Amino acid sequence: YLINDLKWFTFTRNNPNDKFNTPLLLPAPWDHQNTALNHWWQNGGKGLIEMATGTGKTHVAFLAIEKLAIELKRPPKVMVVSDTRQLLVQWKNSFYEAFSFEPDVKWFETRTAMGLIREDLSKLDVDLLILDEIHKLLGNQFKKSLQITAKYKMCLSATVQPGTINFIEKHIGKKVYSYTLKEAVNDGVIVPFTLKIFIVNL
Hints:
Low-confidence stretches: 1-6
Distance between the termini: 51 Å
Oligomer: single chain
Order of helices and strands: HHEHEHEEEHEH
Strand content: 15-25%
C-alpha cells in the first residue's frame, strides 16, 4: 500500500464528512484478513468471524467499512457494539488512526450492550453492525443487541462456544471464517510463545 501512490494520495484526503470521496484504509492487510473479509462478503455481508487474539479482527472490520464505502459510494453508517466502554474506546482510537480521521465522525458509532437494553431498536439507522466479543453478548439481556436491523452484520470473537452458534446464525449468520492460534503462529502472524503458570502465595 505504501508504494501505491494513488492509494496514498487518496488516503491523505480522507474526509469523514465528504459524501463523494469514500474513505480508504491505508494499512495493508494480512492474507488471512483479506480471506476473512472475502468469505464474509460472499455470504452476503453477514456472519461470524472467529480469529485468535492478536490476529487483527478489528482490522477485518475496518476492511469491511472500506469495502462498503466503495460499494455504497458513500460512508456506511456503522455501529460497533461490545460489552465494555473500555473496549469501545480502543475501537474509536483505532478507527481514527486507521482512516486518519479526527474524532467525532458522525457515521461511526459505538454502543455498549447494556446501553441498548431499553433502546427502541427500530429507531436505529445502521448499514453495518459490528458485534465485538460476541461470546460476551449472549446473556438474556445483552442478546437484544443482535436484533438490531442492518443489511450487513459482522460478529467477531476468539472464543465462541459451540452451544451458542445456533443463536448467532439465527440473528447474524453462519460462521464464515476461522483462524486458529496454531495457524497464526505457523504463518508468522504471532510469534511462538510458551505459557507458564507460577503460583504465588500472598
